[in-house]
Amino acid sequence: DSGVTQTPKHLITATGQRVTLRCSPRSGDLSVYWYQQSLDQGLQFLIQYYNGEERAKGNILERFSAQQFPDLHSELNLSSLELGDSALYFCASSVGAGGAFEQFFGPGTRLTVL
Amino acid sequence: TQLLEQSPQFLSIQEGENLTVYCNSSSVFSSLQWYRQEPGEGPVLLVTVVTGGEVKKLKRLTFQFGDARKDSSLHITAAQPGDTGLYLCAGNRNYGQNFVFGPGTRLSVLP
Predict the structure, then answer these.
(1) Which terminus of chain B, N or C, has fewer Cβ atoms within 10 Å?
(2) Is a pLDDT exceeding 80 seen at residue B80?
(3) In the predicted model, is pLDDT for residue B79 greater than 80?
């Protein structure tokens, strides 16, 4: 158990819908990362927050957005869902913001768009 | 085109055999990490290497960072079924905020 929790574990929805994925980092970690993992694209970095502020952006679509709240939990919002958005979405947390800090990954949310 | 390439893509071996998997790039990395991911779970960090030519050992696993910091290898001695999983390498460039992941090597160790 990494100490990072993600809910829900599974999510099935239809094209065009909007969903919210939730992540609670390990106690004491200030940085949260979101990743998307699909069979054809591998593990892709989406976005990083540090202590409530956006710190780095990766391959995140405009239909996707995220935020980190004062209690440090984070939410990833996916809207106007398409079939190709079906994937595993992972959240990771670390103590600091830079690449020198170990990231601890949550168990993931499996999103299926029908 | 992937920034990081991993080979082989798939590997199936018998328990007790040795194996090496590779992570290659044309880019220089300030550090490189190896993760193992089991089905239904998130990746778990195995090691971070930061110095060109560095070798790190973790029980039966030996990790090497290339002299030019563009490539890395993971060698497993006497593989066990518990080593089964997806092995991912991830590189950090210019001491940046995040890591870029390779596509992974899916290892299956048969009893």
Answers:
(1) N
(2) yes
(3) yes
Give residue-wise pLDDT tens across range A50-66. Answer: 999 999 998 899 999 99
What does the block give as tokens for A17?
Answer: 């819908």
Q: Which residues of B touch A60 (CB under 8 A)?
A: none
Q: How far is CA A64 from the centre of its chain?
A: 10
List C-alpha distances in Å: B106 to A59, B36, B85, B86: 24, 10, 6, 4
Tokens of A63: 């239909």
Nearest CB neighbour to B97, from listed A2, A55, A102: A55
**What is the dihedral angle through the alpha carbons of A67, A72, A73, A79, rounded to the nearest 10 degrees?**
0
Name the residue in chain A with its Cα closest to that of B89.
Answer: A43
The answer to whether B39 and B107 have CB atoms below 8 angstroms apart is no
Distance CA B107, CA B64 (A): 19
| CA nearest to B40, candidates A111, A108, A40 | A108
